[in-house]
Amino acid sequence: MNELITKADDESPIDLVIANAAVMIPDCGRTEDIATVTTEIFSTNVDGVFNTIFPLLSRMQARRAGQIGIVSSTAGLCSEPMNPLYSSSKVAVMSYGEALRWIMRDYNVFVSVIVPAAVDTPMTNVPIIRNMPGHFATPEDMARVIRKGLQRDYMHIAYTAMDYWTCCVMMRDVPAAARDFYFRLLLPLVKKSGNYLIEFHPAPKESHVC
């Protein structure tokens, strides 16, 4: 990845990079080995973002020009229990993007964190997600929102203000104790509804290998 990106930048300086790397339920998701599942999710969702932007950071600093969009998720507003490993990886990406925004601003490089909700892609085309309440953005609509947000140098770029602020109020902008209490009440209902998107499950007894 480093060689590919630096070669492209040598040929024509890259002025915008959008880092989007994500897996929700990995191939090894039929195992109860939490460490294995965590490693696979973070190696894609976090390291994938790093591998995309790291080759360009020093180059954009030297040029004093450039823009970076880092794709997180509304699930990245806080670690939540419905899909905890995915959301925690997106929390990491969001936090890093916010920190990088302030670092790179001194070099005239602008960083935004993209915070999409559910988007109609193959990744979300599974029954457990399709049965969840709410609407799905089309890729085209999400792309238009991202373009507009990048042009305006938004810190967070969300599909709709209502989605974003609802998630913030419910998940991020409340004390940790209140959030813990809320999720403790919510989780049994989510499990009962079948919309419990935990990333790891006990494997069949004859095999625990991914």
UniProtKB/TrEMBL annotation:
Pfam families in UniProt: adh_short
Gene3D superfamilies registered for this protein in UniProt: NAD(P)-binding Rossmann-like Domain
Gene Ontology molecular function: oxidoreductase activity
InterPro entries noted in UniProt: NAD(P)-bd_dom_sf, Sc_DH/Rdtase_CS, SDR_fam
UniProt superkingdom: Eukaryota
SUPFAM superfamilies cross-referenced by the UniProt entry: NAD(P)-binding Rossmann-fold domains
Record key words, sorted: NADP, Oxidoreductase
Listed PROSITE patterns: ADH_SHORT
PANTHER family given in the database record: DEHYDROGENASE_REDUCTASE SDR FAMILY PROTEIN 7-LIKE, RETINOL DEHYDROGENASE-RELATED
Protein name: Uncharacterized protein
Organism: Blastocystis hominis
